[in-house]
Amino acid sequence: MDNVNIFFAADRTYLPYLGVSIYSISEHAVTDREYNLTVLTTDMTDDSLAVLNKFTKPNIKIHIRNVESEISYLRKHIAPTLRDYYSEAIFYRILIPGLFPDIEKAVYLDSDTVACRDVADLYDTELDGYLLAAVTDETVIGESVFCKYVENYVGIDDAEEYFNSGVLVMNLSAMRRERTCEKLIDMMENFSFKTVAPDQDYLNFLCQGRVKYLHPLWNKHPILYENEQTDEDVFIMHYNMFYKPWHYFGVVNERLFWKTAACTPFITELLRERNEYTDEQRASDLGSAAELLHCAEELAGSHEGFASLLCT
Description:
The strands form 2 sheets. The protein has a 7-stranded mixed sheet with strand order 3-2-1-4-7-6-8, with helices on both faces. Helix 8 (144-154) crosses helix 14 (279-300) and helix 10 packs across helix 11. The relative contact order is 0.15. Strand 1 (4-9), helix 1 (15-28) and strand 2 (35-41) form a beta-alpha-beta unit. It has 14 helices and 9 strands. By secondary structure, it is an alpha/beta fold.
């Protein structure tokens, strides 16, 4: 069986949440496969690695790859897209195909995820003919303004085909052949599009028609619909956007996070963070969410987005 290659992208401030995610992977990993976990970062140190290595097993290895030199020349293009609530680390995943030329396939996970089953099952997704596999973004699908933005500005034919980039199975061989990441960088350098979800919008535009759609439980957001099952059926829980259990009480499927966090050395720090998260910070989150919605509404009526490239 192939080694299971898993990538994360994080800065030092995300170490506790990353640690919880890595622990969840370790707990569900089978013993007869090798797991190679790599954290792409610019500021984590050997001390960070020492903490994460507490979660290793004989068949699980964790590596840190500093991407400062690769990302530095992109910063002038990345910075305007981040606003106050995105980290530049969201762009590190586009470096994976070029940085690891000997790896044909990989899983990418955001650091605010908790695995509830063996990620090797996700890694084994067949990708022949596809650039990547992903789950449609239920946060976008549930909001008509975002749907209009995705279809009118990003240029996705159907908003229900717009995927969330927090859980990906990447066909690195195909992405290298198609120069997917080089095209993304070229677009950033030449067009500087305004975006709602920076790297995610670019990936959706460039991979359109070459995406394999996964079962939605591989990237479950903290949104609960009427009559929907809760944590018993989740494969990977993704606490995306502002719905962080370490900031709020009562987050959907928060039990999965706290059950896992309790087994890590970060539990006291995480509980303290939640208890000390202020009303002012929560109000700022609401303001940021409203700003995203306003931005999507404004751009949905623009004729200068990604979709304009389809007409040239």
